[in-house]
Amino acid sequence: MNLKLAVFDMAGTTVHDDDAVHTHFAQALGCAGVQATRNELNAVMGLPKPEAIRLVLESRVSSKADISAELVSSVHRLFLRCILDYYQTSSDVREVTGTTEILRRLRRAGVKTVLDTGFSRSIAEAILARIGWEEAGLLDAVVTSDDVPRGRPWPDMIYRAMALTDVTDPRSVAKIGDTPSDLREGTAAGCGWVIGVTGGSHTAEELQRCPHTHLIGSVADLGQIFELNAAFISVPFEQDGARAA
Q1: Same-domain status, 120 and 197
Q2: In the chain, what percentage of residues exceed pLDDT 70?
Q3: Of the given ranges (29-38, 108-117, 231-240), which has the lowest mean pLDDT?
Q4: Which of 109, 124, 110, 166 is nearest to 8 (CA)?
Q5: What are phi and psi of 9, to 5 degrees?
Q6: Are both 131 and 233 inside the same structural domain?
Q7: Domain hosting residue 73, numbered range
Q8: Contacts of 107 (CB under 8 A, 6+ apart)
């Protein structure tokens, strides 16, 4: 099965942001009186942000009845304001080194390229406005968590990416991301390649425990897995890594 579509996560995978998601997520929760640890935040990274907020709040209260929709919404609104301002103004926002070249090589090989993210559309657009991949013609689509009924770890965003790029067989799709929810999303969709990036929010040891076909240090290392040229030949995932349980 040849690779036809590569679906990349954004923050931590293709976009360097100096850990801003963790920082602003923790600050927004702190305003609600919750001092979350990094491990608690890592456990929900990659999920749609309202769902991530709800899960952290639920882990810290005695009764789920104490968590109102308005509380989740107010924390989310604060997070959105802070992170949107950051992505619009911070000089730390830039591509992960090598991403543009990988996107170019994939497209030269006839592979469709899509970003999917647990962010809302407004945040994704703010990031892309800074980095310029759309203007350079390096993306076929961008799918955000508010485009689909269910975010990660459900496969809905990948199915949406496939529909937008006329790809019908998930075995011809690669999902690349730096969180457990990315890897579970790719596995749930039945992707032929489920590739964890260890240079983002989670370590190799943490991602090793999640379902995957490959682990790499950076998106720049995708060339170790795929022959990225016009005469593309796919590499069966069994040849380079075993899908973890």
Answers
A1: yes
A2: 90
A3: 231-240
A4: 124
A5: -70, 165
A6: yes
A7: 20-89
A8: 113, 137, 138
245 assigned to some structural domain? no
Give the Cα separation of 236 and 224 in Å (integer): 13
Domain assignment present for residue 74? The answer is yes
Express each pLDDT in 30-81 by its tens digit.
888 888 888 888 888 878 888 888 888 888 766 666 678 888 888 889 988 9
- Specify the residue for token string 């508010």: 146
Phi-psi category of residue 146: left, alpha or beta, with phi > 0 → left and psi -120 to 50 → alpha: alpha
> Same domain for 129 and 181?
yes
The candidate with the shortest Cα–Cα distance to 106, out of 240, 236, 230, is 230
Residue 28 lies in a domain: yes
Q: Is the domain of 161 the same as that of 227?
A: yes
Query: Would the CA dihedral through 130, 131, 136, 142 be positive or negative?
Result: negative
Give me the half-sphere count of Cα atoms (radius 13 Å) on the Cβ side of residue 181: 26
Grouping H, G, I as helix, E, B as strand and the rest as coil, residue 103 is helix
What does the radius of gyration of the chain's CA atoms come to, in whole angstroms?
18
Q: Is the pLDDT of residue 236 over 90?
A: no
Taking the C-alpha atoms of residue 71 and residue 63, their distance in angstroms, rounded to an integer, is 14
- Helix, coil or strand: residue 23: helix
